[in-house]
């Protein structure tokens, strides 16, 4: 029996839809249930970096086109997606780079989950701060059905969310599970009825955009520190970045704006923006850093929309 070549398919695209201070990154490959090609995985780190540095963006959302989040990495190109530089071993490759880039975003991030969230797409969802799902969503971590190994960073994040027992069930069986079960296990922030999904999303991102970015971004930083293995609780907030963020509370505008608005019973209009704060701490090394993804990205398809 001879193996037949897998059918070719378009490489897909990422689009950015801007709605005021909210930027939605949309995975667009509906003919493959938005399975991400190597070019799509490769494009994510730079795109997320651009949006994180854009002063007009306060919230970054991630969703799929056509009512489906994503079927994960394109199986036809899975080794190119997973292969690491040098050895070529399928340890995570472009998936791990995209996951790390999303986790490193300083602004609040929201995954809009509907239809299916499969395989490596879960790594992107798990890297977001909030995961809002339609009740009909199905999640499956399916490498055991294909004969590959889930990236170690994705396993680490999964175990932190659900514990080793549930992680073992999901990864060893490869079963597809319901949104209700995923919510009960801690994989999802909120599950809403399908007909309420878009309304719930809009409320969530609008609320995040109205919050103090100083508070939100400082909390993200501290939560990240608190979730690291071996981090001592007594040391939380004593690092240089945390100290600088606490100093911003005293010296920046938001605390006083919030205080005055609370006393006046008015909605606050916060002004602190973190782009300059984080840029000053990234240093020359951060500005000059090249993701491996950039080497294969080439002229990747990308569209921008401002409704």
What's the helix and strand layout?
Blueprint: E1 13-19, E2 22-28, H1 38-52, E3 59-64, H2 78-82, H3 93-103, E4 109-113, E5 116-118, H4 121-127, E6 130-134, E7 138-140, H5 143-146, H6 152-173, E8 176-178, H7 179-184, E9 190-192, H8 197-210, H9 213-226, H10 240-251, H11 254-264, H12 275-288, H13 293-297, E10 302-305
Parallel strand pairs: 1-10, 2-3, 3-4, 4-6, 5-7, 6-9
Antiparallel strand pairs: 1-2, 7-8
Helix pairs in contact: 1-3, 3-4, 4-6, 9-10
Total DSSP helices: 13
Number of strands: 10
The neighbouring-strand order within the major sheet is 9-6-4-3-2-1-10
| Percent in helix | 40-55%
Provide a short characterization of the protein structure.
This protein is an alpha/beta fold and 307 residues long. It has helices at 38-52, 78-82, 93-103, 121-127, 143-146, 152-173, 179-184, 197-210, 213-226, 240-251, 254-264, 275-288, 293-297; strands at residues 13-19, 22-28, 59-64, 109-113, 116-118, 130-134, 138-140, 176-178, 190-192, 302-305.
Describe the structure.
The chain has 307 residues and is α/β, with parallel strands linked by helices. Helix content is 46%, strand content 15%. The chain has a seven-stranded mixed β-sheet, sandwiched between helices. A three-stranded mixed β-sheet has the order 5-7-8. Helix 4 crosses helix 6. The termini are far apart. The N terminus and C terminus are likely disordered.
